[in-house]
Amino acid sequence: MGLFEKIFPNKTAELKDAAVLFQTLNGYTPVFKSWNGAIYESLLVRAAIDALARHTAKLKPEISGSARPILQTKLKRKPNPYQTWSQFLYQCRTICEVDTTLCIVPIFDIYGEITGMYPVIPTGCEVVESNGQIYLKYRFRNGKAAAVELDKCAIVTRFQYNNDFFGGGNAPLDETMDLISIQNQGIKEGVKSSASFRFMAQIGNFQKPEDLRKEQKRFSKNLKEKGGFLLFPNTYNNIKQIESKPFVVDAKQQEMIETNVNNYFGVNKEILQNKAVGDSWSAFYEGGIEPFSIQLSECITSMLFTEKEQAFGAGIMFTSNRLQYMSNSDKLKVSAQMADRGIMNRDEVRDIWNLSPLPNGEGQAYTIRGEYHNAADQLEDDDPDEKEDNEDE
Question: Cα–Cα distance between 176 and 251 in angstroms, integer?
């Protein structure tokens, strides 16, 4: 039994022959086809996606509510038996950026209960209907197919417009990818041509075509036997070396290519080179990480918990401590101001500095410096009637 059989049990993988494509509002065929990682083979694109995936992998899952305690216990450790949370989140973000559609399917035990979830990379998906039930049907490279009820799957998308279920694809990136490919081929061919020498010469004193063919054979034989060393006879005139000048884009064009890729994925050089801190990283988090974490949280919550369970507070949310990415001077200011006013306790301050909580709950207490007073206490002290009552007592 392989991973496919572990994730897709027979009762969810079998569809009746009566299954038909589900009809959408605009009549658009609900079908998704994977890019098979084509854009992921580009150095610039992979660097941009890797930056997004690395920071997404640092999100922490927080499960709320009391529904399905056994499932919650398992999810606190890992999302499935084969991945850690960081690996799961990294792969989820990578799939979503490459294919603009991320499909997450539940893993069931022998009793039909959800025990985890797994991100899949199908070559194609389609939404079908059978006996009033809507399914998400997957096809994989190994030729196998499986189907899971749509309401038990999580689908995260990008560029969703004319498809009611799936993302719009990365077709707008094609032109930039062509430029990257041409640039790489030009550099490659330039290296090859620079390692070889080519000459052009004019042959004279040949009146018959047979003599010219004989000279061509002699020339080729001599070049082969001499191992590339050749002396031109006096019958050759106007001997010139052919210089190959391969086309390579200039610095401005190269910068334009990089800018197109960065703009498309919402990153910059500071993020790619791990130089972003403070406000710069916060801006990247709000624009590049937080929207994905919100959509992923909503989709997985709908997959794992029923509407009734969600109404009672059941859910999962992926969060990040953005204060950890401030500069040390900014961390110190926030720590001092927040702790002195009793807004943060010692454990919360230690978390900013990537320190573990204090043992025995010692870090859960809040402290306020002496020069700070509670406004309500101050009003009570200024009330003369209350002061007299206290004196009488």
Answer: 16
| Per-residue model confidence (pLDDT) at position 227 | 58
Weakest-pLDDT range from 171-180, 220-229, 300-309: 220-229
Least confident of 32-36, 180-184, 191-195, 387-391: 387-391
Three-class DSSP category at 307: helix
- The whole-chain average pLDDT of the chain stands at 80
Question: Per-residue pLDDT for 324 more than 60?
Answer: yes
For residue 281, give every residue at least 6 positions away whose Cβ sits within 8 Å of its Cβ, in sequence order, or none.
Answer: 271, 322, 325, 326
Task: State the Cα–Cα distance between residues 139 and 126, nearest whole angstrom.
Answer: 9
Taking 90 as the threshold, does the pLDDT of residue 102 lie above it? yes
**Domain locations along the chain:** 3-170, 189-242, 327-393
Would you give the distance in Å from CA 115 to the centre of its chain? 25
Q: Give the residue among 86, 120, 98 at the shortest CA–CA distance from 8.
A: 120
Q: For residue 323, give the 3-state DSSP assignment.
A: helix
What backbone phi and psi angles, to 5 degrees, belong to 259? Answer: -65, -40
Per-residue CA distances from 26 to 64, 134, 158 (Å): 37, 18, 19
H, E, C per residue of 332-380: HHHHHHHHHECCCCHHHHHHHCCCCCCHHHHHHCCCECCCCCCHHHHHH
Half-sphere exposure of 371 (CA within 13 A, CB side): 2
Phi-psi region of 127 (alpha: psi -120 to 50; beta: other; left: phi over 0): beta
| DSSP line for 11-22 | HHH---TT-EEP
